[in-house]
Amino acid sequence: MQRPDAFKGTATFPVVFCWYKGQPALYIQTDASDVSTAEQQGVNLVPQLANAINAPGGAVDDIYKIANFKQGNIIPSAPIPAGPTNSDPNYTPLWRVTVVTWRPGTTPHILKSEEELFAARDAGLVILQKTDIVLNCPVIYTPFGGQLQTVKIGLSDGDKRDRN
Q1: What SS3 state is found at 139?
Q2: Is 106 within a domain?
Q3: Which residues of 48-76 are buried (b: 16+ CB within 10 A; e: fewer)?
Q4: HSE-up of 103 (CA within 13 Å, CB side)?
Q5: Residue 57 lies in a domain
Q6: For 98, phi and psi rounded to 5 degrees?
Q7: What would the pLDDT profile of 89-99 be if each residue is shown by its tens digit?
Q8: What is the pTM of this model?
Q9: What is the count of structural domains for the chain?
Q10: Distance (Å, rounded) from C-alpha 43 to C-alpha 28?
């Protein structure tokens, strides 16, 4: 029998579109601490991820999920550059979900950064609610950090046509 380190191969993950500093970015999701989130996303259920919320030194960052308007999630940190020379000390692939809800009577619009989100909150347009849900979502591409070198990204539109 061959040693496990002798095997090579590839895996395909669906990418998730998000916003980072006003620009589109991509991540993959592999795990969730919450049963319904894991079921909805088709990822591993890992309840222990929630323990990262209170980890010394902070093991999680926020990810903002807009509840009542369709747009990508918002992330506040990313590997810059992507890969082993990442210099962003705040980046972590462990994200604590904060649900963002547009208040009734407001006109929702796309929020593309944490700064825009906080401005909307400060203007009374949205409500932010932290949850105890933690996701494992490594960022694989941002315009600022580039693409993770070991990843091949192939995008498709709603008609399933590839855009490599």
Answers
A1: strand
A2: yes
A3: ebbebbeeeeeebbbbbbbeeeebbbbbb
A4: 11
A5: yes
A6: -115, 120
A7: 999 999 999 99
A8: 0.89
A9: 1
A10: 10
